[in-house]
Amino acid sequence: MVRFKNRYITVEIESPMVPDKKPLSLKSSIFHDTLLNKVQQIHGDFGVAAVKSGFLTKYCNENTRIAIIRSRHGPHKFVTSSIPFITKIGKLDVRLNTLHVGATLKNSFQFIQKHQRAYLDSMWSKLKTDEERKNLEAAVMDFTKTDVKINIENIS
């Protein structure tokens, strides 16, 4: 039995069109397709064939603008080299920053927790009521924003 190693790439999505307080209207399926198209454009058919097996968008949070992509170890270099060249996702003008590349999903979520805690600390000073702060914390620390339908389609 062969064990496949995966890499989890944590990406930050910056959009100058949307203010920091508003969430992005971004679906993980659109993000997934855009990334595959960019790999096709830069690395060709070989890059797409190498990346496509085991390639999933595991997590996409519109509030903190963070996404996690799973790719196999080895072809993950095609993905990480294509990320900086993405300038549009759907109709949004964006800039993508690679924050972290980890070997486990748990390690990536620990990194995101630290990153989002820092984000919360900076945003709390701008909010006035405790209710707004609780709503923001619930939205930021929600790790269930995964588009299951696109992931099930890609597994089979």
From TrEMBL:
Pfam families: RNase_P_Rpp14. GO terms for biological process: rRNA processing; tRNA 5'-leader removal. It comes from Operophtera brumata. SUPFAM superfamilies: Rnp2-like. One of its GO terms (molecular function) is ribonuclease P RNA binding. It is found in: Nucleus, Nucleolus. Keywords: Nucleus, rRNA processing, tRNA processing. Component of ribonuclease P, a protein complex that generates mature tRNA molecules by cleaving their 5'-ends. This is Ribonuclease P/MRP protein subunit POP5. GO terms for cellular component: nucleolus; ribonuclease P complex. The keyword Lipoprotein does not apply. InterPro entries: Pop5/Rpp14/Rnp2-like (IPR002759), RNase_P/MRP_POP5 (IPR016819), Rnp2-like_sf (IPR038085). Belongs to the eukaryotic/archaeal RNase P protein component 2 family.
